[in-house]
Queue: 2 jobs
Job 1
Amino acid sequence: MKKSFILLFLCLAKGWCQIHPIPTLLTKNLYQNLRNFEGKGVFLGHQDALAYGLNADGSRWIGEKDRSDIHSVSGEFPAVLGLDLGRIELGTSHNLDQVPFEDMKVHIRQTYERGGFSTISWHLNNPVNPEKTSWDHVPGTVSKILEDPEVKSRYLSWLDLVAAFLSDLKTSDGDYIPVIFRPFHEHTGSWFWWGADHCTPDEYKALWKLTVDYLFQKKKLNHILIAYSTDVFRDKAHYLERYPGDEYVDLLGVDTYHRNPPESNTAFVHKLRSMLSILDQLSTEKKKPYAITETGLEQITEKDWWSNVVVPALDGFRPSYLLLWRNGYEKHYYAPYPGQGSVADFKEVLKSGKLILSNGIQGIYR
Ligand code: BMA
């Protein structure tokens, strides 16, 4: 215990701090380098990038080795890989979007070997009634996890499965591969059972603390960074309403999607800039990096979306990364694929160095 207090003091004195008192060296280096890299470009991520995507005719490819839509259009892999553990709690072999958990481990390792990093969300089912999904609201679920011994013990057994997955992420040298874990996201909205209308701020914070304490202390994981990501928020107070505390969060995030273009282009840029300016301020105050933890325009219907919306929204800010959501199927995709209408504009923006892929993220673990 003493050693951890000394380390905590040392990292506070250095002006940066991650919440785990004794992180692995790779995790510590990743965190510090995220901070060192701020303002030099935004690492571009893509959810399920290595698991599936779209062919030029809009049909799906699934499970092909070393394939990624961003790679197909740019020759580089995403710097950041997004994955989701939804359904791991049920003991199934595939997640809610039919990605095999064993493939995910391979993809996380490949991303690490290419110099990048991975971020993991968890659309978990409802621990009160495990047949119900994240989107099914059983009233009072969060309070039941905290207070009903049977529900709590089910939830903790689900965390055991998450921890087993995370413990299986190893480099070829046998070191743990660091990942960013991003639980209970978009909680300013109410579409998930942990959303704003379904629990009080105190209940949300207690669930968060229970989760992080269990993973760190009981499961002894010290290779995960913890991301807090709301959906859209009005102001600083709204962002922080359910914030569990500086000792429970490594990275500040926001999920926000662009809908109804072109009418909304200016409003989306304006709203994103206003949220980034709050995250920028909080990042300075709290000495923590920030990121756009999910975003995108479904079907990228604007040919110049990257230069006309993304670049102006980011200008002057220093988020560490931006994660595009998944290329699920022809009507539900967020990253360009060969032949997609925004490819030329995407490649121009890549040339500017404002968005960074695998070639530009070398050295982040040193
Ligand atoms: C949503 C959609 C769903 C998917 C879910 C979890 O935004 O992409 O199709 O199942 O995320 O990944």
Note: Residues 170 and 262 are 44 Å apart (CA to CA).
Job 2
Amino acid sequence: MTITPEVAAAIQQFRLPDKLGFGAVNAPVMFSAEWQDGKWGPGQLLPYGPIPVLPGARALQYGELVFEGLKAYRVGQSRPNLFRADANCRRMQQSASRLSMAPVPDELFFGALEAVVRACETFIPSQSGQSLYLRPFVFGTESGYLLRNSTTFRFMVIANPVEAYASGTPSVAIERHDVRAAVGGVGAAKTAANYAASLRGSTAAVARGHAVALWLDAASHRYVQELSGMNFFAVIDGELHTPALDSAILPGVTRDSVITLARHLGYTVHERQMDIDELLTQIGSGRCSETFACGTAAIIMPISALADSDNLHKTRQINVVASRLREALLAIQERRAPDPFNWVRVIP
Ligand code: COI
């Protein structure tokens, strides 16, 4: 893909700061392609910066937007690699299908990712746990209030050199009132609406000193769904339990990787309905020894306690199984260990 003088200048001027955070530092280039007259244009690299969007665009008025999150790694390697990018590509197509938006074909998705990663290659941070976070997204650009899909779309990829999203062993707050997603809705699609619905609960959780909110099902407010931006796991009697997927839970790529890896390491993994009150009782009796969350951004985040209003339910151990799985997962992602599942794709 052509590197214009503007893009080359943006890359040349960029300096990787010591402190990265998560999303605080923007890579100097981005990819953009447009859908018009029923087809995608070839797309191009641009310097990172503001884009023109009509105020009446469907994305702004009705949230017609789907996105993905994945990472490029370059820890002790000369060539960067992606991790399960095919799964992200498929999920973005499924999210677009749920919103009846134009799907991004595989070649365009991978071409865009590879162009951005190659352009950013020299400043992919290289310590374990660090990476270049890639955020592909598609949004409806047509202006108007009619409740039908936009006929024009824009596909973009922006990128951020990052550390892990969360650190330490935080507590999470059980959200008993607000609902993130209902069965039959858009909870399984990676679309802005789900994140918007979770903002009040998450902001309140953070204000009370917790990392995020833990969401329950919409119908009965009883079954665990997921955390804001992460899937949930509990270790009960030494076995792993995670909520079974339904159309209200995001099918996390990291969730799937953790299940596969855990089984490979000898754990029994159950995907089932998880009643929150039963779980709290099991934490109290010690049968549930540990809980953790996982996601692309968070990798694997150990949880120290579940907060139910002001009652803190602390597990008897923290970060024992979680750290084992985190290390095993990161070692594959960072190419420090063999990749028996063929998950890693080196950028040529
Ligand atoms: C990701 O893990 O990629 C997400 O999109 C979650 C977000 C809260 C950063």
Note: The two ends are 14 Å apart (CA to CA).
